[in-house]
Amino acid sequence: MSESGFIEAIRNAIRVRHYSYQTEKSYLYWNRYIIRFHQISHARELDVNHIERFLTYIAVNRQVSSSTQQQALCAIVFAFKHVLNIDTQALDFAYAKQPVRIPQVLTEDEAMTIISALPAKYKLIASILFGGGLRLNEALRLRVKDVDFTNNSLFVFRGKGKKDRITILPKGIHARLKEHLERVKLIHQCDLSEGYGLASLPPALLKKYQHSAKQWYWQYIFPASSLCAHTIDGYVCRHHIHPTAFSRALRASVKSVGIEKRVTAHTFRHSFATSVLKSGADIRTLQEMLGHKDIKTTQIYTHVAGIHQSGIVSPFDK
Questions:
Q1: CA distance 158 to 141
Q2: Catalytic entry in 27, 122, 220, 301
Q3: In the prediction, which pLDDT does 92 show?
Q4: What is the number of other CB atoms lying within 10 angstroms of the CB of residue 297?
Q5: What is the pTM assigned to this prediction?
Q6: Is 301 part of the annotated catalytic residue set?
Q7: What angle do CA 258, 262, 268 make, to 5 degrees?
Q8: Exposed, middle or buried by CB within 10 Å (0-12, 13-18, 19+), for 246?
Q9: Cα–Cα dist 270/298, whole Å
Q10: How confident is the model at residue 94, as a pLDDT?
Q11: Is 57 a catalytic residue?
Q12: Out of 143, 188, 239, 292, which one is annotated catalytic?
């Protein structure tokens, strides 16, 4: 099996299992890398020893993080199991211990200062991140149908782990969001008049809802500035804003207001969780809103919020 045939077989195996496009890109990257690292012309030549040598190389020579090691291993083992049909039980590789990190958070004033310095369309995205606790990709993938102004809620479709959930729509952005949607609707009407207007949908959804795929409610709330070819099906559609565009705008905003913290899109999610806990919310409710599978993941925010220190006075202050 040549490299191109091997990669195509992996792509097919991924799409059969409905993995995300981001996972597909990552898995293909690592499997191309191991093939080229060992300078193998035929994928069937790979065995468990090749995996061990490759993982050792990226850990020792490239000094990648433990999470990157894990990602590389998952990608390669997937190909071995589902494409090459090779057993990897004998794999012997020592992982670096992953550090337990307490996330960086912003105060409410800091968050609002940064948001106010962003351009209008990015300001809305950041407001949803901080006001509803969404991940960046979850916010960018919101469609018109996912917004419920009456109940102040946002429907997150197939978030991380392919889990649906409901979270808060901040009341303070209702007016601005409605104005933004009116502008987006004009863009969609223009696309329709030019013979386009199909929503960017996963293949399974497009097949299921093909007769309504041009409807307004399927469109992204934060559409890209130009049309593009669908990454899988190839039809012309309008995708959502690229995450890097928001990240660039955010870095510029943080720099302009002079806040000396490392701030990413995910920092708003951390800040949301901490603020909600400080206001007295139940941790189980927060777990559901954030979409965490394990309560232990949510409990990290009790440390950030200082809840574990409640009632304790430093000896110095006595």
A1: 10
A2: 301
A3: 72
A4: 12
A5: 0.79
A6: yes
A7: 95
A8: buried
A9: 10
A10: 63
A11: no
A12: 292
Task: Indicate if the alpha-carbon torsion angle 227, 233, 235, 238 is positive or negative.
Answer: negative
In the DSSP assignment, the letter for residue 236 is: E
- Residue 91 to residue 87: CA distance in whole angstroms: 9
Annotated active-site residue 266? The verdict is: yes
Report the alpha-carbon distance of residue 288 to residue 150 in Å, rounded: 21
pLDDT attached to residue 137: 92
Phi-psi region for residue 19, left (φ > 0), alpha (ψ -120 to 50) or beta? beta
Catalytic position from the list 185, 266, 293, 308: 266
Question: Is the CB of residue 285 less than 8 Å from the CB of residue 277?
Answer: no
- Round to whole Å and give the CA distance between 239 and 241: 7
Is 196 within 8 Å of 236 (Cβ atoms)? yes
Based on the residue annotation, tell me whether 269 is a catalytic residue of this protein: yes
Q: Transcribe 146-177 into DSSP letters.
A: GEETTTTEEEE-S-TTS--EEEE--GGGHHHH
Report mean pLDDT in 10-residue bins for the chain, 318 residues. Answer: 86 88 91 91 85 89 87 90 84 68 87 93 93 92 94 87 86 94 94 90 80 89 91 87 94 93 92 86 83 81 64 61
The catalytic position among 121, 123, 135, 270 is 135
* Side chain identity, residue 23: T
Catalytic annotation, pick one of 32, 160, 180, 278: 160
Catalytic residue status for 135: yes
Q: How far is it, in rounded angstroms, from Cα 132 to Cα 153?
A: 9
Tokens of 232: 């899988």
Amino acid at 216: W
* Distances, alpha carbon 100 to alpha carbons 82, 90, 269, 276, 277, in Å: 32, 29, 18, 22, 20
CB 67 within 8 A of CB 95: no
